Amino acid sequence: MTTVAVTGAAGVLGSELTRRLLSDGVRVHAVDLRAVPAVPGLVPHVGDVRDSRVVAGAFDGVDAVVHCAAALPSYPEGEIRSVIADGTANVLSSARAARVSRIVHVSSTSVYGLPQVVPTPESHPRAPVDVYGRAKAEAEELAEQHRQGGACVTILRPKTFLGVGRMGLFAMLFEWADEGRHFPVLGRGDVRIQMLGLDDLVEAVCTSLRASETAANDTYNIAASSFGTLREDFQSVLDHVGHGKRVISVPARPAVAVLEYLERWKLSPVYGRLLHKLLADSYVSTEHARHRLNFEPRLSNEDALLRAFDWWRANRTVRPARRGVTSSEPWSQGALKLAKVFF
């Protein structure tokens, strides 16, 4: 690959992937609503992934496309579907017109919904439970149709990823830990919630670009191989800070009722699917990626959390975003900030 187009190039994943590709000597056509600083080897294309003119210009002369652009679950419902599903449709049609034969489509494990089977394999039916998951599932269906049309399309389903540049809802944990507060978990906190280091997701994308067409033309879960319970992983952050604080259990049912009420009135950044995901084990099988794509993640949940925390501590002057516009901003805690007094 000599030239790769990256959509969502100003986002957490897109920006880190762009840096990696440039360091590997690959020329990058960067597509994003926000301007990406021009550096040697990078060609910025400022615009929306739903804009066929912008995307067609960005795909001219590229060898591959990595589609990272998406809306966050905190966006308005209509915008979530439009950006994710309609944006993907435009990316795929523009790639076809530009005769780009290799695409890496970054999806999400949210397409599984709240599966009862863990570890969840790629063969598990798509059963999304919210607008974001349904939009991701629709985008996957479009990618699969494009694959059936003869293109080589890698679909990556990452778990929630974090690392350098990632704030979002994790900034709440980091802030409370840094201030020397205990941190609450629903119930006993003994559920196992798999995450993913950003560096590993970038490596998975690069591995897909280098892989043979046979290996690349498939769908893969991408997630940490090593992870503990939510209590253990969150406690690692509190221990890293060194104030001697602990993860504290709060009664699950009353807490869920309060959080659902706050979400309804937009007073909390904890959205519905995340709330219910924290109540049960949530992890996927990564065997398919290990054996077929020859990809093995290096970072554990704890590694990823601590890297993200150290970056947050060095960049915490960023003002909270009210609505959660990007994952590189700390989301406003809303009414949850008032709960600090109890911890």
Record the SSE blueprint.
Layout: E1 3-7, H1 12-23, E2 27-32, E3 42-46, H2 52-59, E4 64-67, H3 77-97, E5 102-106, H4 131-148, E6 152-158, E7 161-162, H5 170-178, E8 183-186, E9 196-197, H6 198-210, H7 213-216, E10 219-222, H8 230-241, E11 247-250, H9 252-264, H10 272-277, H11 287-292, H12 301-314
Parallel strand pairs: 1-2, 1-4, 2-3, 4-5, 5-6, 6-10, 7-9, 8-11
Helix pairs in contact: 1-6, 2-3, 3-4, 5-8, 8-12
Word description of this protein:
The protein is of the alpha/beta class and 343 residues long. It is built from 12 helices and 11 strands. Strand 5, helix 4 and strand 6 form a beta-alpha-beta unit. The protein is globular, with a radius of gyration of 20 Å.
Which labels suit this protein?
single chain, alpha/beta, Rossmann fold, UDP-galactose 4-epimerase, domain 1, two-stranded parallel ribbon
